[in-house]
Amino acid sequence: MKKTRLLFFALAFSLGATAQEKSLHLSLEEAIQFALENSYNIQATQNDISSAKKVVWETTASGLPQINGSIDYQNFLKQPVSLADFDGDGVDEQFVFGRKQNLSASVTVSQLLFDGSYLVSLQASKAYLKISEQANEKTTLLTREAVINAYGTVLVSEKSIEILKGNLEILEKNLQDAQKIYENGFNEEEDVEQLEITVGTVKNQLNNIVRMKAIAYQMLNLALGSAIDTELILTDDLDTLAEQHVSLEIITEPFEVSNHIDFKIAENDRATKKLLMRLEQSKALPSISTFVNYGSQSFSDSFSFFKGSQQWFDSSLLGVSLKLPIFSSLGRKAKIAQARIALETSDFRLEETKQRLNLLAQKAKSDYQLSVGNYLTAKRNVGLAERIEKKQRFKFFEGISSSFDLLQAQNQLYTQQQNYVQSMLDVIAKKAALENALNLSIKTKK
């Protein structure tokens, strides 16, 4: 019995420890840092960088010495016959030259001496690596913003549930009081029915928010790069985060478009197009390579090549190869023209990106200022709506006002509560969007 009890406690402790390991306690900054290390998109772009580095080395290696070996074995099942008239009598005689089997082995060392396309390809591979690195930087910014929005959405659902539960508690008490008053003949049945409708509506809203909260947690897990069923315990609250994100000093932050990741990507795209044009131009240049070959060959009528008495005949060769493009029926010229047009298009895209980023920065500042104004207004309005609803509730139970007046005050309160909660999420999300638009650096914990 004692052993059974000990086993039970050990199992319970093990299950508790496992459950604790699966849960994550995260502030907003901790959630961002977690996502920057574990996000699926971040990991994918990091793999792209690793792959691009291999591409750079692959391109580099193509211009370095290449060593290749070969072994060839031939066994003539039926040897070819040659005809020749050696004695001049007009009759050809049949002859078989060579042995039935032969084995040869050789090693070739080759080296590229000059190839214009190789030099351009080497530069292009480095540009490709830069593209992967910039994609990673862009993904980092987007991941940060996605986590902020997902974290805020979870807090909004939690706050909405808290508010709706409070409203429902007050409504149910009001309904009970109204029923008692109606039973005593001091109000009309319509007043009770009106409260019943409001209670039912709030219950439906609460049930829906509870369902949406579960989805919001799963969306946050997805943004973090953790399993969607991971238990998350968020240590920041919506009210505090909203206050922390009210910082109009960010509006005065200078915006340097050349530092924005989207502008850098457009610049790198232009550089890549220029390299492609140079690549097409380089194909008109000659290419020179050299090679050294050393081989050995043996002949026999049977497979006796590994016997000590077998003769082997060595050979060696040094060579230089020159390839000179002469005429391509204007095909090469057409490709160069296409590359030049693509380069010109990239210039247009670069200028468009510059103008668009400046415009987006201005719009993001305006949107953030609006969100701050809406937040401060909603915060004040919800306090006013609470006082109005409280006064109307008092008047209703004193018989001074009607159920319609109370309903109007309650609807106004619920609308202002929704506006207030939404304004808190907006001020958090709009600041994150502004930080992205201004390309502000991300502070990560090392």
**Topology, number of strands:** 8
Structural class: alpha+beta
Question: Span between N and C termini?
Answer: 51 Å
Q: Classify the helix fraction into a percent range.
A: 55-70%
- The percent range for strand residues is 5-15%
Biggest sheet, strands in spatial order? Answer: 2-5-7-8
Provide structural commentary.
- This protein is α+β, with helices and mostly antiparallel strands and 446 residues long.
- It has a domain at 46-68 and 115-288 and 330-437: Outer membrane efflux proteins (OEP).
- The protein has nine helices and eight strands.
- It has a four-stranded antiparallel beta sheet. Strands 1-6 form a two-stranded parallel ribbon. A two-stranded antiparallel sheet has the order 3-4.
- A hairpin with an 8-residue loop joins strand 3 (82-84) and strand 4.
- It is elongated, with a radius of gyration of 40 Å.
- The two termini are 51 Å apart.
- Residues 1-21 and 442-446 have low confidence and may be disordered.
